[in-house]
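Q: I'm writing up a methods section and want to include an example of the input and output format. Could you take the sequence below and give the corresponding predicted structure tokens, formatted cleanly so I can copy it straight into the document?
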Amino acid sequence: MITVLFKSILSEYVPGEPDQVELTYEPDLTIRAILEQCGLQPGHIGLAMVDGQVSDLDCPLHDGVTVELYPIFGGG
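A: Here is the clean output for your methods example:
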């Protein structure tokens, strides 16, 4: 099982639970593939973390990990 946490405004794109999705692990699953499943574009993501470590979108995922996705940060 892979837990995906959608932070801040990204939770608005996720059906059901407002900020968390549980996915069945599949070989060759990447963050990019998760985005496609959820209807998000890579441009929506400012930061992706796997088990608390910064990761790129093509990082292969393993069973039991937690993925955190953050939107692009802005302000000034």
